[in-house]
Amino acid sequence: MAEQIYTIPVNDAFDSGCECPVCAMNRELENNAIEYTMGPSYMEDDNRALTDKMGFCPHHTRLLYAQKNRLGLALMLKTHTDKTIKEMKELAAKGPAPKSSFFGKSQTEAPVVEYIKELESTCFICDRMEQMFDRYIDTIFHMWKKDPGFPEKFRSCKGFCTYHYGLLYEKSSDKLKGDNLTSFIDALNNVYFDNMERVNEDISWFIDKFDYRYKNDPWKNSKDALPRGIIKTAHTIIDN
Questions:
Q1: Ramachandran quadrant class, 176 (left: phi over 0; alpha: psi -120 to 50; beta: rest)
Q2: Is there a contact between 7 and 137 (Cβ–Cβ < 8 Å)?
Q3: C-alpha to C-alpha distances, 194 to 32, 39, 51, 124, 190, nearest whole angstrom
Q4: Alpha-carbon gap, residue 122 to 180, rounded angstroms
Q5: Contact 161, 188 (CB under 8 A)
Q6: What is the pLDDT along the chain (240 residues), one digit of tens a residue?
Q7: Quick one: which of 151, 145, 206, 212 has its CA closest to 177?
């Protein structure tokens, strides 16, 4: 199967040697989304309207601040807070939700509370990532069916974190049928458990190396066992 634009990120992730290729794809999506947000795009009216409406989650706010483009971030925060103040003043003026039940408990939330909960549930960067991430997951299953070389690449990777193992397991029954589904699940189980056990052994040896009895023994593959174990268990890539 000739490499297409939509297969390149998937192939790159599976070739990266990461403990979870799906985490690698997600990290690349996040980096691209951060760069896009802090690039010239923040001056475009359409993007500014979306960032004003959706805001950013705490995690991505910290990453945006780390980009050092303080003026760009300030401009986005200014128009976002302008919109938030205006709309919340209007909602706050409506007061608390009416108490309509027999026991005096509110059946609905105050308009301002509903607004805040909605605002807290949205993030411009998360939304941008999720749209592309779903396409990447679909591409994995497409390549499993259509690319003769991909199943072997899949079986040879370093496995997946527990979260993305579960995601692939869940999605597989919707994307694959018959023998394709059976072979995919077999490969997924093998590559996940084999590599979880490999990392588990590395973590165990990392711990043993703090015992004076093993002081002069080689580290083997355990020096970076902790960040690799974090990928496996928390689907988070730690920068060394």
A1: beta
A2: no
A3: 32, 42, 43, 37, 6
A4: 36
A5: no
A6: 555 778 999 999 999 999 999 999 999 999 999 999 998 877 788 888 999 999 999 999 999 999 988 998 999 999 999 999 999 999 999 998 776 655 555 567 899 999 999 999 999 999 999 989 999 999 999 999 999 999 999 999 999 999 999 999 999 999 999 999 999 999 999 999 999 999 999 999 999 999 999 999 999 999 999 999 999 999 999 876
A7: 145
State the Cα–Cα distance between residues 200 and 228, nearest whole angstrom: 10
DSSP line for 157-180: S----HHHHHHHHHHHHHH--HHH
pTM assigned to the model: 0.87
From the list 175, 231, 221, the residue with the least C-alpha distance to 20 is: 231
DSSP collapsed to 3 states, 94-129: CCCCCECCCCCCECCCCHHHHHHHHHHCCCHHHHHH
**Six token digits for residue 215:** 């002081």
Residues with Cβ < 8 Å from 113, sequence gap 6 or more? 97
Whole-angstrom distance, CA of residue 235 vs CA of residue 180: 26
- Amino acid (one-letter) located at 214: Y
Phi, psi of 106 (to 5 degrees): -70, 135
Q: Compute the distance between CA of residue 37 and CA of residue 60 in angstroms, rounded to an integer.
A: 11
Could you tell me which of 32, 50, 42, 46 has the C-alpha nearest to residue 69? 42
| CA–CA distance, 93 with 23 (Å, rounded to integer) | 45
